[in-house]
Amino acid sequence: MSRQIIPYAFIAPAMLLLLAFGVLPIAVALLVSLTDLDLAGLGDWAGAGYVGLDNYRSLLADSAFWQAMANTGVYTVLGVPAVVVTSLAVALLLNRSEGRFFRALRAFYFVPAVTAIVAVSLVWGYLYNTQFGLLNHLLGVAGLPPVRWLTDPALVKPSVAVVAVWRGTALNIIIFLAALKAIPREYLEAAALDGASELRRITSIVLPLLRFAIVFVTVTTVIAWLQIFDEPYVLTKGGPLGASTSVSLFLYQQGFSSGRFGYAGAGTLVLFLVIAAVTLLQVRARRLDAS
Amino acid sequence: MRADSRATTAVVGAVLGVGALITAFPFFWMVSGSVKPRSEATGHPPGLLPHEPTPEYFAQLFGRLDFAAHLLNTCVLVLIGMAGVVITAMAGYGFAKFRFRGRGPLFFLVLATMMVPVQATMIPTYLLLNGVRLTDTLLGAALPTLVSGFSVFLFRQFISTVPTEMIEAARVDGAGEARIFCRIVLPVCRPIMAVQLVLAFIGSWNSLLWPLIIADDQRHYPLSVGVSLLNRQIATNPSLQMAGATLMVVPVLIVFVFFQRSIVRGFTLSGLR
Questions:
Q1: In a domain, A18, yes or no
Q2: Would you call A233 and B228 a contact, using CB atoms and an 8 Å cutoff?
Q3: In this structure, is residue A261 part of a structural domain?
Q4: What tens digit of pLDDT does each residue of A74-129 get?
Q5: Choosing among A6, A59, A126, which should be mutated to test the B contact, i.e. which has the most B CBs within 10 A?
Q6: What is the CATH number of the domain that holds A143?
Q7: Under an 8 A CB cutoff, do A13 and B268 touch?
Q8: Given an 8 Å threshold on Cβ–Cβ distance, is B242 in contact with A126?
């Protein structure tokens, strides 16, 4: 084997996979979105015809698409602040002590990060159940009327979001705790000697030093919530009447339930552009921050 | 002042304790529900613990339903996911220890793929896999998330710190490139390998979207898809659902207990990018 080939042999498998699943899909989405590819066309791509921008035109006129976009917006607006604030608060509290009790508590808060969303969503579905769910039973004990957590169009989005928040905080608590550990203890001790109260130390020293972590967590959380799929898929299938359908779930249904691949390709590109815009905003914010 | 601070810590500890109980409660409810007879699981008032615990629903998962096959498929997915870590380490080594044409642009490409949301591109990815006849295979379900640009980056960073002299010395002694990689590079990478392998296990074990899209034949479903289908049976049977969920969650909990350090380290690294 020639020496020059060796490095390429080492990187080739990973590079091929990254190209195939990181780069190529966008090109495929762009190409497919200009055709009327459907289930019948899958076996024989030649059967698909060029339709120009028709898919984009009908997508932008599709009320179901806009409903899914609006739902995703609501999920993001409900979920991201909840995740960021909760995980930051829990991390600050957990960081107060290095005692054994506090360290043991961490494990409890970390666990949702590693457990399968599909299993966890089933458990929440059981808790939310209108006939025999625990939550309505507790409401009954408190003398309150039962709530249709997953079938009331107004309530279903917050109900689904709670499950995703419960899960999403875990990972970010870990990230915030690591960032808190990186803050030099001397800063806080000096401030304490100068008589700064604990609250003051947090607002004037800790939070500014965590700025980078906060921006990072916010952006990755936004990107994750823009793609939310597992929770609504398992809990509601997007119902009632599309009230909990996210964009990802909409694309899944268009592609795999209705077989409209060209149409779903157009939606993929729109979602990709939205996420790319958010990512670029992050890069720009970080550059501004650094300068 | 001192006593005051200690009192605050106690209050914070109590608040966190309550929060931890709330966070953990769904898991408790899941395990408890999995061994309740159906009449108890749907009865009023719901009891915290089962009165007459029964293994019946686990037996149903493996008897009436196909969960033995699902479990096997999940194990195959996990093995493929772990093979992906080796592929990733190879790429990290290639970028860290070799100078070659196109290295800069290729590595930039690796980093650029970090910006692409894999889940959002499920439709074109499905079409690609369909084009190469990998639909309805476990390999097809594992490939889209097998390698991430960020893990390649992590391995490259780690391997850069390995002294090049070690590798050169082996080469002078006549060791082949594959041997150098397996005998020198991989052992040195053990800390980061451990982290990545555990994360690969968790990721493959839990993954729902790709198997859902790629697997057509019920015999190719992994646990995640099998569990998600428990919600679509005509008569909801919470005991059966909780048994399925428990089967999925408990192995990961065990892994978490043993590898908590690696897992936390892995997630922390992902927070540094």
A1: no
A2: yes
A3: yes
A4: 999 999 999 999 999 999 999 988 888 988 899 899 999 889 999 999 999 999 99
A5: A126
A6: 1.10.3720.10
A7: no
A8: yes
> Is residue A287 scored above 80 in pLDDT?
no
Question: Is B13 close to A124, i.e. CB distance below 8 A?
Answer: no
Interface of B with A in 114-173 (CB under 8 A): 115-128, 130-131, 143-147, 149, 152
B52 has pLDDT over 60? yes
Task: Collect all residues of chain A within an 8 Å Cβ-Cβ radius of residue B87.
Answer: 13-14, 17
When pLDDT is cut at 50, 70 and 90, the band that residue B273 belongs to is very low
Cβ neighbours of B121 in A, within 8 Å: 21, 25-26, 29, 268, 272
Q: Which of B228, B161, B167 is nearest to B191 (CA)?
A: B161
Look at chain A and report how many structural domains it folds into: 1
In a domain, A8, yes or no: no
Among residues B260, B257, B202, B244, the alpha carbon closest in space to that of A114 is found at B202
Q: What is the pLDDT of residue B1?
A: 46
pTM for the predicted model, two decimal places: 0.89
Which domains does chain B possess? 65-232 (1.10.3720.10)
Assembly ipTM? 0.89
- Mean pLDDT for the stretch of residues B56-64: 92
The one-letter amino acid code at B53 reads P
Closest CA to A21 of B156, B146, B197: B146
DSSP-H helix ranges across chain A: 5-18, 24-32, 39-43, 54-60, 63-94, 100-110, 117-128, 134-141, 156-181, 185-193, 198-201, 207-209, 211-226, 230-235, 247-252, 261-290
Number of inter-chain CB pairs under 8 A, A vs B: 284
Q: Which residues contact A185 (CB under 8 A, 6 or more apart)?
A: none
Which among B75, B125, B119, B115 has a CA at the least distance from the CA of B208?
A: B119
Name the residue of chain A whose CA is nearest to B85's CA: A14
Domain that residue A94 falls in: 63-290
Asked if residue A24 belongs to a domain, the reply is no
pLDDT tens profile A249-267: 999 999 988 889 999 999 9
Q: How many other β-carbons are positioned within 10 Å of the β-carbon of residue A181?
A: 10
